[in-house]
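Lesson 9: reading folded outputs for more than one chain in a single document. The general rule is that every protein is listed as its sequence immediately followed by its structure tokens, and records are never interleaved. Here is the first one.
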Amino acid sequence: MDMNIEKFDPTTSELNTLVEKSQLVTVTDINDTKQMKVVTAARIELKNARVSITKKGKELRDEANKFAKAVIAKEKELIAILTPEETRLSELEEKVKDQIIMEERTKVLPTRKTQLTNIGDGVEVQDEYLLTLDNDSFNTYYNERADAKKELDAAQEREETERLEREKEMVKREEKARKEEQEKAEIRIKEEAARVEREAQEKVEKEEREKEREVARVKEEQENLEKDNKYKAWLTSHKYDTINFKTVDNGETVALYKLVDTFKK
């Protein structure tokens, strides 16, 4: 099939000639029917040329579409012959590439494991997983774990600092409480000593008062005994008896009366 674009008819030069001819048509009097007929005839000539071009274009496009479909079908047919083998070879290449990559990753596996162990986060990871990581993926994985360990260490450090601060504060409170208790104990001791001293002093004073009272009592008894003896001696000196004598005590003195006689009526 000949797909020559020059099949379009008329040619470009012929169309330019037709347009140049049409450009010479003008209207000087709209009422002049002859001039209007010339305009109409020129327009129809341009229209016919345009319609002819469109029709020819459609014919050529139809032929081109048929040709394109035939080309596509042939293309698929030919490609279908090559594709299976190309796919096999491509898969073989990928397999070899994967083996090479796996060998390279196997070589650096101990280094990767050492790097991860040095992070010190205690996380265990299977070798199979590490072998699936390319360098960028491993670096990302390593950095994530390293950052997480740093954050964990920082958090533990903060927690340890806070714990030490709490313990320090607790020691201060305990020391303060101990001092306060010691001060209270000293106050209690002083108060107890003062109480004991006060009670001892009170006991001494009480004993002295009791001694004074006893001395006064003994003195009073002696004085009373002396008075009683003097009183008895005084009664005896007057030959006192309960029948012939009578005593009258007014508090300060005692009067002694003797019965002189009795008269029976």
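And here is the second record, again sequence then tokens.
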Amino acid sequence: MRDPAYLDSLPIHGGFRLRGVQMSRLETFADAAFAFALTLLVISFDTIPSSYAELIHALKSVPAFAASFAIVVMLWVGHRTWSKRYGLDDATSTILTMLLVFIIMVYVYPLRAMMAAFLSAFTGGWVPTELEFDSYSQIRGMFLVYGVGWLTVNGTLALLNGHALRRADSLGLNAVERFDTRTELQAWSLVGLFGAFSMAIALAVPDQRLGLAGHVYFGLMVVMPLHGRWRGRKRQSIGSP
């Protein structure tokens, strides 16, 4: 159990006492890895555009980059929030963070390729796609690859919050902080489950309905705001730290 005087001296953000204000080597490594992953999103052109037409073609890829960039940043913010809140640097935290970094490095190209394919279909081909499919089985396989990445990367963030929850007593988490940790675990688990839903749909539906495996992710726009509203109301009933 942390010293109460020490806990009372901690800076507070959003009602949560920050135990990891000073960056650890683990957080520094994770930040560098996320920054490298973002550069991998950009470095995907075989050659530098040498004409106006090639430049315009390259710029049309910006929406796919922007969507991929937003997802990687969302994951980085999730890890940064976890690091600032708990300041954990033990073996389990290191293993899970290394797993997160590994998945991000592997996941970054399927992420961009999937965003490009989706936006190309949505814009009628205006956004160039980086993948060509010869059969429905290949499309099905791409949904499975993307779903595995989505499930595991969000699941790892859920595991990190689960680890912090198990360390609640030693960290000196109060009732509000335990609630925030538990619901953060729930939120990342919910987001990750959409990857599992997508894979299940990709395996179950006929070829002509394969698009549903991608459309299922739009459900996040409904489920997560509802979870956030419930979380806010429930938190108010607990009180302030």
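What the second record shows: The beta strands are 12-13, 16-17.
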